[in-house]
Design brief:
Layout: E1 9-15, E2 19-21, E3 35-41, H1 57-64, E4 71-75, E5 78-85, E6 98-104, E7 108-113, H2 119-128, H3 135-166, H4 173-204, H5 214-280, H6 295-316
Parallel strand pairs: 3-7
Antiparallel strand pairs: 1-2, 1-3, 4-5, 5-6, 6-7
Helix pairs in contact: 2-3, 3-4, 3-5, 4-5, 5-6
Length: about 325
């Protein structure tokens, strides 16, 4: 099912000594002391009616934007942060990662996504366990969960490239080149969002809000460092894949050169033999020894001598050396 075909689903949780469900329509009117999280799944472009009225128009448009990059902006008394992470289902587009957009206030968070994000299950578990008490706790938990979910995928790219490097000397070049190209393409696509994730979290950790505690800032910086490490690993995968691809291209060119040399040597050996057999095969009178019984084997022996002389000349000139 495409993002455009997904039904819009809204869920709201409130944490106030315990966690309970809250009707999504009641979030705007909630005046309790608890922390409220409203999540909208399956959002559509430019339909501002999907957004609660308490979300500023600028933030609401950002929550509904079709094409997003990780970012963090301070808007009035809240913060807008967009992140990218691993989806529950594999994506078919070139973005690779699923976008989640979050409007954060002190005691209220509104998040939106077009496809299910794998990290949200961990965040919901933390909220139900009573560990999320404000917006700062929520963003820190979300950042940690996204980075932990994404880390094994990045490491797997490096492991697959290690396998490719081990198959260079004894593997088939053509499928190996295709596999390396796929790994390199995926590394480039992932790095497109992993590096901005790092920058968005670093910006979030510097916002001057009281509801972002010192511990929250530490967790945000820790997640940003993890994203920075993943970005560096993706860059290393991209560069290693490029070098490995060049190596395979050189091996392919060397293989073609060897085959061309073998063909050229064979053709050069048979060139004088073809001349001799063509000359003696003319249907005219006067061919020497044409009536002698030993003539055929004599011609064969003469051709063998010529071939050996040509091969010997190749050996002296070192044409046959690898």
């Amino acid at each position: 099912m495409s993002a455009e075909d997904r039904p819009i689903v809204m869920r709201a949780l409130v944490s106030n000594g315990g966690v309970s469900e809250l009707p999504p329509a009641s979030v705007a009117d909630y005046r309790g002391d608890g922390f409220v999280w409203l999540h909208i799944d399956g959002t559509q472009d430019d339909d501002l009616e999907q957004m609660p009225g308490y979300v500023p128009t600028l933030a609401a448009r950002a929550l509904l934007a079709g094409e997003t990059r990780p970012r963090c902006d301070e808007i009035e008394e809240g913060a807008l942060i967009n992140l990218r992470g691993t989806g529950v289902d594999a994506t078919l587009d070139s973005d690779q990662l699923v976008s989640i957009r979050v409007w954060v206030e002190g005691k209220r968070v509104t998040s939106a996504s077009r496809r299910p994000l794998a990290a949200l299950a961990s965040v919901e578990g933390a909220m139900r366990a009573g560990r999320l008490l404000d917006g700062g706790d929520f963003v820190a938990a979300l950042a940690q969960a996204i980075s932990i979910e994404l880390d094994p995928d990045i490491a797997d790219l490096g492991d697959q490239l290690d396998d490719c490097e081990g198959q260079v000397d004894d593997g088939d070049i053509y499928p190996l080149r295709r596999r390396i190209a796929v790994l390199r393409s995926r590394a480039i696509a992932l790095r497109r969002f992993v590096a901005p994730d790092r920058d968005a979290l670093a910006s979030m950790a510097q916002l001057p809000f009281d509801w972002i505690s010192t511990e929250d800032r530490m967790h945000l910086r820790d997640a940003a460092d993890r994203f920075a490490r993943m970005a560096e690993e993706l860059e290393a995968v991209r560069e290693r894949a490029a070098l490995l691809h060049e190596q395979l291209t050189d091996m392919r060119a060397e293989m073609i050169d060897r085959r061309s040399l073998a063909i050229a040597v064979t053709a050069f050996i048979f060139l004088p033999l073809t001349f001799i057999t063509g000359l003696l095969g003319m249907n005219v009178e006067g061919i020497p020894f044409a009536t002698q019984p030993w003539a055929f084997w004599g011609v064969v022996g003469f051709c063998v001598v010529i071939a050996l002389l040509v091969i010997g000349w190749f050996a002296v000139e070192r044409w046959l050396d690898d």
